[in-house]
Design a protein that fits this description.
Order of helices and strands: EEEHHHHHHHHHHEHEHEHEHEHEHHEEEH
Number of helices: 18
Radius of gyration: 21 Å
Strand order of the largest sheet: 5-6-7-8-9
Structural class: alpha/beta
Helix content: 40-55%
Largest sheet: 5 strands, parallel
Strand content: 5-15%
Number of strands: 12
């Protein structure tokens, strides 16, 4: 038996605002950052678990404080008991009534819970000697579903349905694993699209990301000035040609009437989707926009804070493309439920991965989905941004526009010692 003996938090901030990498209509000067947590045990295997919450600078300290506020819940706990029953770990944190009052099940506390649960799953995967995607894919369907919380979902998805989906996903699983290992999982690039970039830099990056790296879709940020958007979209379409797909992201900047009016100027550009056209809390607004801009699809989800919001979007048919963020919700279990909901409602998932560590983290869930749940990569892509991968022990690798699966045990979120020493925020 081993016990949890330490929960340490770290505030890492990267000065991406210096280059305007990450800039969009809502967030003009982000400093991509990581509120990082490490769970230590007294086991003699030397394994520690890591998790994180992605932020864009200030606020990292708030997330770290939230993670520290939960340490007493886990310190001294039997590690094997938690790893063998991850639903217990979820319940201890998500159903702590005094912390839950701050949400419920949303906001900084919920994100901090996700980091802690991710760190526990990291330990579980490392002890199994498997990358997280493969650990999840190899789990017995009943065992995996038993870790999940279906409260508030029974009108849309029941545990027995989830088990059936995962049982069906066992068919052809080994062939899909072999294909994943050989070919990878399709990605798309947001690297050219930041609003702070000049037209020349945007065009150059569009060509580089498609012609050299092999991506078949690029995404541009929009929403500051309509005339700038139309000019940039025209330049991008000319740069990538008709065989490469093009998407846009407004980062919540519009209200509903403005979104409809603005997006209806984009029909000539053959867009694959428009992302986050309005507030992520406005389910009805997204549904209204989706009908009014048809056939341009709506994509959203990176700021949806829990499984209940995803359920409502799906029930209202408020998006065509579902996006998830690995650190917005309460860890792997909630992300898995979101993929199960997408399966139930037959929606493709193209996860958000625009920030430090998100590419490394969310790829595990997309690959689990392909291998053991949906069984397809059709209309499914993982977002890619070409910076900050050097800070990770096992960084994302792209070949021919595809994410290659991580092979190292764990969740892929562990940062290098050199990064920890250089970018630790000291106030």
């Amino acid at each position: 038996m081993s016990r949890i003996v330490g929960i340490d938090t770290y505030d890492f901030r990267f000065p991406t605002s210096n280059t305007l990498s990450g800039s969009d209509a809502m967030n003009p000067d982000p400093d991509y950052s990581s509120a990082y947590v490490k769970i230590s045990t007294d086991a003699d295997d030397g394994i520690t678990g890591v998790g994180f919450v992605f932020t864009i600078g200030r606020g990292n300290d708030v997330v770290c404080a939230a993670m520290k506020s939960m340490a007493h819940t886990l310190i001294g706990r039997d590690v094997e008991q938690l790893l063998d029953n991850m639903r217990l770990a979820w319940d201890l944190l998500v159903h702590d009534s005094q912390l839950r009052w701050l949400g419920p099940e949303k906001g900084v506390e919920h994100m901090a819970i996700g980091a802690l649960l991710s760190a526990l799953w990291d330990i579980k995967a490392k002890r199994a000697g498997l990358p997280l995607w493969r650990l999840l894919a190899e789990m017995d369907p009943e065992e995996l579903v038993a870790t999940l919380d279906f409260r508030y979902l029974s009108d849309a998805l029941r545990p027995e349905e989830a088990v059936d989906f995962l049982r069906d996903g066992q068919k052809g699983k080994e062939e899909r694993i072999a294909n994943l290992l050989a070919c990878g999982y399709p990605g798309y690039s947001t690297a050219p699209g930041w609003l702070g970039y000049s037209d020349e830099k945007m065009v150059s990056l569009c060509k580089e990301e498609t012609e050299k790296k092999g991506f078949k879709l690029v995404k541009l940020k929009v929403g500051r000035k309509i005339e700038d958007d139309i000019r940039r979209l025209g330049l991008a379409r000319d740069a990538i040609g008709s065989d490469v797909r093009l998407a846009v992201d407004a980062n919540q900047v519009w209200d509903v009437p403005t979104a409809i009016s603005w997006i209806n100027n984009f029909h000539d550009f053959d867009l694959s989707w428009v992302e986050e056209p309005t507030s992520p809390d406005d389910v009805i607004g997204h549904s209204t926009i989706a009908r009014a801009i048809n056939p341009i699809p709506v994509a959203t989800g990176e700021h949806l804070q829990n499984r209940i919001m995803f359920k409502q979007y799906l029930q209202m048919n408020a998006f065509s493309i579902m996006q998830v963020d690995a650190t917005r919700v309460a860890g792997p279990q909630e992300v898995i439920i979101e993929y199960l909901l997408a399966k139930k409602f037959n929606k493709p998932v193209c996860p958000h991965a625009g920030g430090v560590g998100l590419c490394e983290a969310v790829a595990h869930f997309a690959m689990f989905d392909y291998v053991a749940l949906s069984g397809t990569v059709e209309n499914r892509l993982i977002e890619y941004v070409d910076n900050q991968h050097e800070h990770f022990v096992n960084p994302t690798v792209i070949k021919n526009g595809n994410y290659m699966p991580q092979l190292a045990p764990g969740n892929g979120a562990e940062m290098t010692q050199a990064t920890a020493e250089k970018y630790l925020y000291r106030g």
